[in-house]
Amino acid sequence: MMTTTERALSKVPEVTLIFWIIKVAATTLGETAGDAVSMSMNLGYLVGTGIFAVIFLAAVIAQIKARDFHPLLYWTTIIATTTVGTTLADFADRSLGIGYAGGSTLLFALLMASLVLWYRTLGSVAVEAISSPQAEMFYWITIMFSQTLGTALGDWTAGTAGLGYSGGALVFSVLLGMVAAAYFWTQISRTALFWAAFILTRPLGAVVGDLLDKPVASGGLALSRYSASAVLIAFVLSMILLFKQRPAQRVH
Fold this sequence. Notes:
The chain is mostly helical. Helix content is 77%, strand content 0%.
């Protein structure tokens, strides 16, 4: 019979290659879907943020109340964090006029503050140590900040830094490769490497999403945001259904 702690742990998936593939696809979907609502539907960043914030809160509440790990619910919550992150970052960067650099700096500070507060409160920020609703709350708040930071950082790299969407994708792919190399060939904290990879997958998804749906004149492929989002949804669903994900277990 499972204990309460085991139930809580079982709601977080084991970190495997499949986890990272779905994560990148989910963050790319967050960019295309967020832009579809705020731009293609002409609802604006503020309204788009409000819509996705409601979905995000509902998904997080359902995730925390769930007794077991449900892959579809977990990844729905991840997608909710990345869509609200997309519209929130765009609202801060563009509508509030603080720019990509300012938005990235502010969000990085909020992300670090979330991790520090989580660590000081519970003593660990490791995925395997998530064993209570309080830890889950910290987990999802931290993820939401990381997803929002990723959008701002991706836009800053592709736009202000002048690398373009393909250049930005290359930069973040190389950085993720460096994190993977550190995982296999160094003794750097696995928790630190997890969060580094988790943060970097978001700007990678952001620039790939923009590469897919931005105009050709801006360096994109000018694909429909709706069709790109539909394809990404189908891909994420197929990965969830085809590859069984196991819940993360505490390392003894």
